[in-house]
Amino acid sequence: MKRLILLLTLSGCVGQDIVLDEVPPEVRITNAISQMEINTSWQFKYMYLDNVGAESTPDEITWSTSNADIAIVNQDGLATALDYGNVEITLTATMDEVTVDTTIAFEVTDNPTMMSQSTRSGTIATTSSYELTGDFEISMDGNDLIIEFESNYVADQGLPGLYVYLTNNPNTPTDGYEIGAVQVFSGAHQYRIPDIDLFDYDYLFYYCKPFKVKVGHGDIE
After folding, report:
1. Which residues pair with 62 in a beta bridge?
2. Helices (DSSP H) in 103-221: which residue ranges?
């Protein structure tokens, strides 16, 4: 009887029979800005994620600007603002002959504050027969990442061995950050995670750890 209950529990977790871990490679600028003060410089940082969402070093990177009269950027990602206006900076990365890129736009102004994105948000959606839903917002408090869940968050308490992760692959927790076992199954709550930056991960990932089965995730926008 115990074996039958275990199998029924596992079948309730499974959202699909085959999970493909491969994802498109991606490059992202991790400290994008929306404004930059004229006659100042900004050191852009980046992260490259391979075809399984693991951070790695590309074979080649190239930085470029849409208007060198407004801002220039060298091949180390150091941008310098020369004149007022709007400009785009593009980062292109090549790995194993596959090229990906990302572009950010900002305005050169007299404002002495570098305006960077301070929050991200998303919604959890279930991929199993169990209820799992809720909105969340992510922000920084010093060196700590804060994940705030809203009051509409609900997770079925029948989910066996439910854990939550930060990942860059929506199909697997491999190479992700294990936040821990889920302790709150309804209502507003938060996680505080040290030494994780706002753009280090793109997904919240929910996992039946004993059975190694995904049960839901949320895109971090």
Report:
1. 92
2. none
Alpha helices in 39-193 (DSSP H): none
The SS3 of residue 3 is helix
Q: What residues have CB less than 8 Å from 17, skipping those under 6 apart?
A: none
List C-alpha distances in Å: 110 to 66, 87, 90, 184, 185.
20, 15, 23, 46, 48
pLDDT, tens only, 148-201: 999 999 999 999 899 999 999 999 999 999 999 999 999 999 999 999 999 999
The residues, any chain, with a CB within 8 Å of residue 142's CB and separated by 6 or more, are none
Q: Find, among 119, 95, 115, 98, the residue nearest to 106 by Cα.
A: 115
Asked if residue 188 lies in contact with residue 149, where contact means CB atoms within 8 angstroms, the answer is yes
